[in-house]
Amino acid sequence: RKICKWCKCSQEDHNLSSDADDDRKIGRLLSDSKYATLTARVKGGDGVRIYKRNRMIITNPIVSRKDPTFDTITYEWAPPGLTQKLAIQYMELIPKEMQPVAGTQGAAWRRRQLLRQLPLHDQDPSQCRGLAPGEAALMEDFVKSYKAEALGVGEVALPGQGGGAKEDGERSRPPEPNGAVDS
């Protein structure tokens, strides 16, 4: 459902999903795609795949006269396949209030965006009401098509360095601070 049955507000306003729910949604999206390696099969879960959350923990020692202490920042999400240095630089490009630091408004904002961007009824015909049998088959074909052609994990590079060359010879763009993905 896109809206609440009782108050008619959007689903993300209620923050109804948990980390496990979010991981299942992303796992469902990435399953049967070339990014299935970012998922793991749930033991005893009837073939359900979940997203292997890529958390990043940064520990900075604070040296004082007596005992050393550590300043630790936990990001609920970080782009996969990056060195910690590049991931930190990527996170610094995101406005401070939108960085997905655990327990902050930025992490909650990212989860709300996932709810809005990954509704179940856009990925699974069985979650749609009122589809005719022919429409369900067409939707399954569409989902397979976008998983093969449009689903992607963007490359992250420092401004001016760009990633590998695109198919049409165009160079990759610098990192998008809003977590945009290349298609």
Describe the structure concisely.
By secondary structure, the protein is an alpha+beta fold. Helix content is 31%, strand content 11%.
Describe the structure.
By secondary structure, this protein is an alpha+beta fold. The strands form two sheets. The chain has a two-stranded antiparallel sheet with strand order 1-2. The longest helix is centred in the C-terminal third of the chain and has 17 residues, at 133-149. It contains five helices and four strands, in the order ααββββααα. Residues 165-174 have low confidence and may be disordered. Among the domains are: 21-53, no CATH class; 54-122, no CATH class. The two termini are 27 Å apart.
Descriptors:
single chain; 183 residues; alpha+beta; two-stranded antiparallel ribbon; 5 helices; 4 strands; 31% helix; PET_domain; zinc ion binding; repeat; transcription corepressor activity; LMCD1 protein
